[in-house]
Write a structure and sequence with these properties.
Helices cover 40% and strands 20% of the residues. The protein is α/β, with parallel strands linked by helices. The protein has one domain: 3-Layer(aba) Sandwich (Rossmann fold). Strands 3-2-1-6-7-8 form a 6-stranded parallel sheet, with helices on both faces. Strands 4-5 form a two-stranded antiparallel ribbon. The radius of gyration is 16 Å and the shape is globular. The relative contact order is 0.20.
């Protein structure tokens, strides 16, 4: 997309999507509440994200890969997601997602919403079961910021014409790297540091911000 006018990069869980996918997967292991509490602490910035993610993924060990069909059936886009992405495209923009969540979810959900590119973590699998480990490097706060810069550079879009939208502490570096950092459905630390805070949990609220 060499003629793209601007780039919008979203976080996935609790931003573009209403759910925290790792909690849905943890439900399959009977550990949903435990993982939800750990996720909340990570999103508030109370613990290191990568360390927290490894601990939470360890709790998923033994979940069968067949369970992803049930998990995907429970994933809900945030209200207004499809409409916002339609407007991004109508105005010559690119919609992207970079997530501390998982490709196992985004590879299905992102294209269904019209997202142009996405990056996330992968879950290691052995004998059709989750091994409890992350496969490859973890997409953390630095990884999110790097993805935004990489995509913008590849598209020939200056930083000032990028928008980053997130809710958790691991989105702050990405938001700082963007021309406009938007706190959406966000934790207090994120609202305090964002350029703009959007209160209503409806992504259509962001349409007036598009160039």
């Amino acid at each position: 997309m060499p003629d793209a006018r601007f780039l919008v990069v979203f976080d996935a869980d609790s931003t573009l999507l209403r759910n925290e996918a790792i909690e849905l997967i943890a439900d399959e292991a009977g550990r949903g509440a435990e993982v939800a509490a750990a996720t909340e602490a990570a999103m508030r910035g109370e613990v290191d994200f990568a360390t927290s993610l490894r601990t939470r993924v360890a709790a998923l060990k033994g979940v069968r890969t067949a369970a992803f069909a049930r998990v995907l059936a429970r994933v809900e886009p945030t209200p207004g997601a499809a409409e916002l992405i339609t407007q991004i495209h109508a105005r010559g923009g690119v919609a992207a997602v970079v997530s501390g969540g998982f490709h196992e979810i985004l590879d299905t959900v992102a294209p269904s919403l019209g997202v142009d590119r996405w990056r996330a973590n992968r879950l290691a699998v052995a004998d059709e079961e989750l091994s409890g480990e992350v496969d490859g490097a973890i997409v953390d706060a630095a990884g999110k910021a790097a993805a935004l810069r990489e995509w913008a550079l590849g598209l020939g879009i200056p930083a000032r014409r990028t928008i980053a939208v997130g809710d958790g502490a691991n989105d702050l570096l990405m938001m700082a790297a963007a021309g406009l950092g938007v706190a959406f459905n966000a934790k207090p630390a994120v609202r305090a540091q964002a350029n703009l805070v959007v209160g209503p949990v409806d992504l259509r609220e962001l349409i007036p911000l598009l160039p």
